[in-house]
Structures are given as structure tokens and as C-alpha cells.
Amino acid sequence: MIPPIVVHPAYQAVLPDGHRFPMRKYGRLAETLAELGLAPSGFVRPEPADAALLNRAHRSNYVDAVLSCSVSREIEREIGLPVDESVVARSCASAGGTLAAARLALVHGLAGSAAGGSHHARRETGAGFCVFNDVAVAALALQDEGTIRRALVVDCDVHQGDGTADCLAGSPDLFTFSIHAEKNYPTRKIPGDLDVGLVDGVDDAAYAAVLGAHLPGLLDGLSPDIVFYNAGVDPHVDDRLGRLALTDAGLAARDRFVVGEARRRRIPLVAVIGGGYATDIDALAARHALVFQAMAALA
Predict the structure, then answer these.
(1) Among 287, 15, 61, 292, which residue's Cα sits nearest to residue 157?
(2) Is the pTM of this model over 0.85?
(3) pLDDT of 80-139, one tens digit each?
(4) Which of 120, 212, 233, 234 has the smallest C-beta neighbourhood within 10 Å, fewest atoms?
């Protein structure tokens, strides 16, 4: 069975003309996944996260300010997006989508959301195009309700997962592993459980070697109930915010490796798309589709 994919129309928010965030990639990704035959029965539509769910990972005063579109100009600048009704709806849908996809992964073994990976959102604020930390929200919700005891976050976005580390710092059974470009954003990194910073220009082979040196041991040592996989495509050589040098083939191999290692151990895996900032939206959507293709091939 092809793994289920969660999509919400609100994933693609409306931004001012000329904004540097490639928001169109979300709509194009959904189209690409359909064109590839990866949603033969259609997409699963999630319930957007409400305040009670978001408060599991974030301070209630921050959540309330976002939901009422009343965050300070300082926080809005830190986020880099206008915190208006469209972006708030997107952020709530994305958090709800990751939780829905995680629940599906626990049933089917694999699932994904065609958004998510907002890993710079911290407990008290958003940052780096991230408003709410969807992976932290989902992991904490599943743990709090007793559905899981232990989770592993595998964050392969090119930027360090500072917000996820912050949100999950008080939860030792929710383990964060980030492999990223060391000299990239954020300048002030919040240490996670395992951070692997790469030098600029790392290519396909070197990246695969580093990932292979760490992931199997983590899966064996932790035996998590679920893996949250941030399959950011910004390590690509053509990414505007990258600094690494992976090719499309390298990203595809990375995704197959992560998904395959979880599958071999019968550990459920949920994928979110993370960052990707190329100017060619079609090429960008095709890269984001790679993780869904990997899941379909290994299901």
C-alpha cells in the first residue's frame, strides 16, 4: 500500500508579492505528488491544531498572541513572515497535519505530511520562517496521551534544529538528532541530544557516510516507538540558503537510507518536508517529493 499523505489547502498561505519565502512550493508539491501517482485515493485532510494542542510545545502567551495575530513586530521580524490570518491558518494546519501523519504512521508504518518541519520555532517564540514547531507539538501530544513513550527526531534540514531542541529539552525520551551545515543559520544554536555540524561543501558521498555512521546506532540504541524525519531539501547544491553540495540523487539516497533503516527495524516513520529555498518551484517540489517516493518504494 502506498503510504498516506496528509495535505491541507491552508498549507500554502498568501504572502506579499516578492516575498523571499517560496510559499508556492506547497501547492506545487501536492500537484507533483498527485501527478506521480502517490495519492491514488486522494490526500488525508488534517484537523488544524488548536490552542490546547499548541500549548504542549509553546508558552500559552505566545500561542495566544499568534492566534490573535497580535505578536510584536520584533517577533514577526524574527519569524520572517507576516503573522496574519493566512500564515496563522497555515501554521495551525501544519501542526495538525504532522500529528495526523504521525498517527497514520503508527498504524501503517509510514506516512508523511506535505508540509511541516518548522524546527526553528521555540517554546517562547517563532523564528526562521517557523511559527509553531509541528514535530515537537506532535511528539509531545503522542507522549502525553500515552500513545508513544520514546521518539527519535531525525532532522536532515541544512539548518540546525534549535527550536525542536528547545521545545523537547524537558523530555529525555524525545531524542533530537540534527545533521546540518555548521556555519549556517541559526548563529546561536540550541544544543539537541546529538548535533552533527558539517563543513561547507559536503557532497553526496561524505554526507551519506556521516549519516550512516550515526543513524543505525541511534535506532538500535533508542528503539523509538516512532521516527519523525525532517527531510529538508536545502542541503542541495542549488539551494539559496544551503552551503552543502548534495545533488538530487544524493537527496534521494539520503531519504531511502533513513526510511529504509526505520523499515528494517519495523519502526514507524513520519516524514515532513522541512526547508527548501530554490527559485525554480518545479525543481523544488520535485526534490520535496523524493521522500514520498522513497516511502512508496519501501512500504
Answers:
(1) 287
(2) yes
(3) 999 999 999 999 999 999 999 999 999 999 999 999 999 999 999 999 999 999 999 999
(4) 212
Q: Of the candidates 129, 134, 132, 128, which has an alpha carbon nearest to the alpha carbon of residue 114?
A: 134
Q: For residues 215 and 256, is the Cβ–Cβ distance under 8 A?
A: no
DSSP state, residue 188: S
Has residue 1 got a pLDDT over 90? no
Best CA proximity match to 254, nearest among 272, 269, 233: 233
For the chain, report the end-to-end CA distance as a whole number of angstroms: 7
**Contact indicator for 105, 226 with CB cutoff of 8 Å:** yes
As a residue count, the chain comes to 299
Q: Which of 201, 194, 192 is closest to 250 using CA atoms? A: 201
Burial class (CB in 10 A: 0-12, 13-18, 19+), 257: middle
∠ CA 91-95-101, rounded to 5°: 140
DSSP label of 6: E
Question: Would you say 150 and 175 are in contact if contact means Cβ atoms under 8 Å apart?
Answer: yes
The 3-class SS string of 263-297 reads HHCCCCEEEECCCCCCCCHHHHHHHHHHHHHHHHH
For 63-91, give one letter per residue: b (16+ CB within 10 A) or e. bebbbeeebeeebbebbebbbeebbbbbb
Question: CB of 234 within 8 A of CB of 185?
Answer: no
Q: Classify the C-alpha dihedral 258-264-265-271 as positive or negative.
A: positive
